Amino acid sequence: MIRVTNLKKSFKDGEKTTEVLKGIDFTVQNGEFVAIMGRSGAGKSTFLYQMSLLDEPTSGEIFIDEKDTHSMTIGEKTSFRLTKLGYVFQDYALLPEMTALENVALPLLMQDMPEKKAYEKAKEHLTKVGLGNRLDNLSGQLSGGEQQRVSIARAIAHEPKILFADEPTANLDNESSRVIMNILKELHAEGQTIIMITHENEYSKFAERIIQLDDGKIVGEERP
Amino acid sequence: MFSSLNIRIGFFLAKRQIRRSNPWTTVLIIFVMFFTFLNLVVVSGILVGLLQGAINAVRTHYTSDVIVSSLNNKTYIENSPEIINIIKSLPQVEHMSARYMEGGTLEANYKTRTNDKEKPNIAAMSIYGINPVAENKVTGISKFMVEGEYLAPGDYDQILLGAYLDKKYMDFDYPGFTALENIKPGVKVRMVVNGVEREVTIKGILKAKVDQLSMGVFMIDSQLRSMIGRNDYNVDEISIKVKPGTDPADVRDILKRNGVDKVAKVQTYIDAQPKFIKDMIATFSLLGNMLSSIGLVVASITIFIVIFINAITRRKFIGILKGIGINEAAIEISYVLQSFFYALCGSIVGVIVLYGFLEPWMTAHPIDFSFSDGILVAPISGTLFRVGLLMVTTIIAGFIPARLVVRKNTLDSILGRN
């Protein structure tokens, strides 16, 4: 479970301070699939960065499985991201010098998993997202949809508590987008907690709950 | 930081980055490391080799491996015949040459000088009385003949002249030193030793990068002996060439055990080196190290720039690595390992080129310096030390930029924000 209370984030640019998140209270239960929507500049990505511990909020609290993340050191946060969180980036964020298999295996190896087991597990998850035949391809040799599937495989290979997806279909064509959304749907069906940002109504309906964000505040919530 | 897990992941990252980087860039960096290595080893090696060449020349062509000479308070070696017999009986000795030595003068224009007011063309020098066959076996000086011929046994009233005593070979003016003019093989000159005057013929002129040869005069030993009245056969110097594989110090010690050191100085070629030579070796070595350290700074700056550019251009991916939970230390180690790889490859290529080509080639083809045949002195221990130094420097130079970039905010790195 993730619980956010009175979360605020502001950026300073010289004398000027811009408040992007203006006190958000938000809870996601284990196994939930939540979509966050809103217009550009509403603060969706900033909100996701705070929850996924990639950024430090200005104030407020984030509890993941009742653990206060504010008191964590940088090293503890890194370790927490490695073991408890998964992240699907909008632009796939694969490491170009590594094959699909190596990209997925890397976080597992960082968890001190034996190499053979890590590669077996990586292979298993790549097969799960339909890339069993593209294991040894470098990211540059894969299509956008395939790269995003590798990114999903990397994010779920270590069986995270929460999977964060930042507009995972933003750079993909319709067919690839549907493939990605179906994978997320299947993961959710298996019990994976997912928090996803999306612009597209069609894909937000894959979620159980849709949160509307505007001007740094939650302005609506619906269940499709 | 240096946990086995971080090293393992660092190695995993470094291996893939190197394997899939631009091969030309990798070759270029290794090339820079290779030249840095050569700079470290060769600059000081040539500076020391410059002196070592001179030392080798004195050893090979004058003192040989062991030299027995008169004590400081004696004018010659007492009991020389007995000592020579001891030396000849040693199985470690290959050849030996006993020399008489006396100061004297040569006058070139004594025949053409018409009156006492005309300045005599006189040169002062050391005159060596040698057995030409034995001397040549020990020092091989016959190869230095630039004019005329080497002495043969029985060449009475004939001399070999060091080239610096001939004005045409003396291209510098040294205060207090006079060379002879208008001389060549076949010309007669007047020799004066111990007040004994003799007309001798120049048989040949020899030129070497050993002052004792180029500034001395050589004649048959029996003739000089009679001129200086050394009827007891006591000589001034004995040069001993030991058999290959024999340590000169062993022969020195045997001679000392036989009591030779009671009547003569017994020294290896190293013992016989003047202190200033040893000081010069130390000075040149220091100078070489100072010059090499500049190369080391250049190498560290090169590696710093390479790793910094590499890390900066990969900042987004470093952010992603941190984002997916890869430890900062593991990422830093990956860059340290890359630096280590470049330095190691450069050093390996350098060692192969150094010992496979450069050192043997320079030994076979020494650099023709005016006072020595410069060789490249690169002892293995010194080379390994410099390899280690290069490694440590490049590792530090690789670590600092990696740390600068890795320590930046994770999200800023991913989003490319400053």
Give a short overview.
With 224 residues, chain A is of the alpha/beta class. Chain A has helices at residues 44-51, 74-84, 100-110, 115-128, 144-156, 174-189, 201-204, and strands at residues 2-13, 16-28, 33-37, 59-64, 67-68, 85-88, 162-166, 193-197, 209-214, 217-222. In chain A, helix 6 links the parallel strand 7 (162-166) and strand 8.
Architecture overview:
The complex is a heterodimer of chains A (224) and B (418). Chain A is of the alpha/beta class and 224 residues long. Chain A has one domain: Rossmann fold (3-Layer(aba) Sandwich), CATH 3.40.50. Chain A is 34% helix and 29% strand. Chain A has a six-stranded mixed β-sheet, with helices on both faces. In chain A, helix 3 packs parallel to helix 5, helix 4 crosses helix 5 (144-156) and helix 5 (144-156) runs parallel beside helix 6. Chain B is built from twelve helices and twelve strands. Chain B has helices at residues 4-19, 23-63, 80-89, 132-139, 211-214, 221-228, 248-257, 275-313, 315-323, 328-364, 380-406, 410-415; strands at 66-70, 93-107, 122-130, 145-148, 158-162, 188-193, 196-206, 216-220, 237-242, 264-268, 367-368, 373-374. In chain B, the strands form two sheets. Chain B has a six-stranded mixed beta barrel with strand order 2-3-8-5-7-6. A two-stranded antiparallel sheet of chain B has the order 11-12. In chain B, a hairpin with a 4-residue loop joins strand 11 and strand 12. The model of chain B has no long low-confidence stretch (mean pLDDT 89). The A-B interface holds A 49, 54-55, 74-75, 78-83, 85, 87, 89, 93, 95-98, 102, 106-107, 109-110, 112, 138, 154-155 and B 5, 8-9, 12, 16-17, 19-21, 316-317, 320-328, 330, 409-411, 414.
**Radius of gyration of CA atoms of chain B, rounded to a whole number:** 32 Å
Main sheet makeup of chain B? 6 strands, mixed, barrel
Round the mean pLDDT of chain B to the nearest integer and report it: 89
User: What fraction of residues of chain A sit in β-strands?
Assistant: 25-35%
CATH topology of chain A: Rossmann fold
* Shape verdict of chain B: elongated
Helix content percent band of chain A:
25-40%
